[in-house]
Amino acid sequence: MGVCSVKSVRTAAYWVLVFASGFIVGVIFSAWKMDTVGEGPKQPVSASREDEGVELRKRIAGLEKMLAVKPDQTEAWVELGNAYFDVGQHAKAVEAYQKSLQGNPRNPDVISDMGVSYRKLGQPEEAVKAFRRALEIDAGHMMALFNMGIVYRDDLKRPADALAVWETFLEKAGNAPHAVMVRPWVEQLRKQLSSGGSGTK
Helix %, strand %, coil % for the chain, to 5? Predict the structure, then answer.
């Protein structure tokens, strides 16, 4: 009697479980199907990124074609360098930036962007040279100072140099958005150096 009772309870629970599982699977499948067919939030985002990639490739192809015929178009070289930068082709970005600088050698924005590309290529020393060059033209160039500090701290392991650069950055930045990021970095470097951390090589 006790055994039958237990068995009957298990059987009832089993069918309840089967029914509930089937119901849940059906709901999940329906929701998935609606999300796949409908305009769910994920689909437009990925489609938008894909569209952006297609547009960038078209833009690059158009600029390359134009510059093959008219290589003296300084601003077009800048645009091409920026497009290469955006798709992660940093060696080509550097080449395009260098071409643009032949027409306008005193453009600190282009020189600073070229420095970032050098860093992406694993050439931190060249990056620093580019940032210094940009700062010779514009001593208050915020992005050159910001990025030079990152290269000194993270790539060249020269915290004292990073600290000096970022202190200059903060003197000039005021309430610029990047200043919010740099302030805690400066405090961290001061603590590191005061406790005997490595300085300039």
Answer: 80, 0, 20
Average confidence (pLDDT) over 81-101: 97
Give the model's pLDDT for residue 133: 98
CATH number for 106-201 (one of 3.30.450.370, 1.25.40.10, 3.40.50.10860, 1.20.120.1200): it is 1.25.40.10
Instruction: Report how far apart, in Å, the C-alpha atoms of 57 and of each of 30, 50, 60, 84, 99 are.
Output: 38, 11, 5, 9, 20
Tell me what pLDDT residue 89 has: 97
Task: Compute CA distances 32 → 22, 45, 152, whole Å.
Answer: 15, 17, 49
Q: Write down the residue that tokens 């510059």 correspond to.
A: 67
pLDDT by residue (tens digit) across 128-177?
999 999 999 999 999 999 999 999 999 999 999 999 999 999 999 988 88
In contact, 25 and 19? CB cutoff 8 Å: no
| Domain boundaries along the sequence of the chain | 49-104, 106-201
Mean pLDDT, the chain, integer: 81
Which structure tokens are listed for 59?
């833009």
- Phi first, then psi: what are they for 48, rounded to 5°? -65, -45
